[in-house]
Amino acid sequence: MLTWEKVDTLSGWFGFHSYALWRSLLDFQRARNIRGDLFEIGVWRGRSASVLATYCRDDETLHLCDLRIDDGALEAAFESVGATGRKVSTISAASSELPRRLDLRAMHQSVRWMHIDGEHTGPAVYSELELANQIVRPDGLVVIDDFFSPRYPANTIEAVRYLEKNPFHFRLFAVAFNKGYFCRPEHLATYMDFAADGLSDALLGYDCKTTLFKTTGAFDTDAIGITGFVDAAGTIAGPDTNPHYWNMLRDKPVLSVGARLRNAWRELTR
Fold first, then answer.
1. In this structure, are 244 and 146 located in the same domain?
2. Are 179 and 261 part of one and the same domain?
3. What's the pLDDT tens digit per position in 91-105?
4. pLDDT tens-digit profile of 149-186?
5. Among 30, 37, 228, 268, which is 20 to 30 Å from 141 by CA?
């Protein structure tokens, strides 16, 4: 059975907040019967891959790419979370080799979750997003590690450059806990509605209390930001000028009556 305690024993840098968010989003995909393979570039010893393996169905494949795949470490990681017997395809190579190593025609729009945590250079991130555009499903998600990280600015710069050049490929859905989450434009509303209506409770189900921010309008930046819980903001907060609403395609109330009263009381007693 997958638990954070089991994942936390594995080597790597995949944190608790990302663990809870991944599980919440993967649960959402499962609830909507979104099927497809899972893909990770940058595996190390399988810490985050173990989460993906747990969610990999019998008719799906977990694709793993790293410069040197440690099969023994992966086997041990998957066994520790009860994810043995999954269909796994490993490639020991740089991500730049993937277009030549994969059957891209057969994999066209077959992947529902792609995690990019590889070389961390501008050219690599851009080419990895080009690959993602070929293989990720219309209702899938792409996750880029170290997004907004001051250590790896190229990850953010090249991802944004890609979005600007290819506006119909992906949209930034969320920025959370050192990662950027991207979806297809045609399914942005699907994931945004989940963020507004169910994501906070889903995260709480994994003992992860957060604040979701949507501080800009529908035709500005659609992405939400997710942080650890901010008491003054509550569970979900809109723009600074109107924190009770998220301005999406239509204004959407995001706070319960009780939360609004608590926020009003804070304002009055400052």
1. no
2. no
3. 999 999 999 999 999
4. 999 999 999 999 999 999 999 999 999 999 999 999 99
5. 228
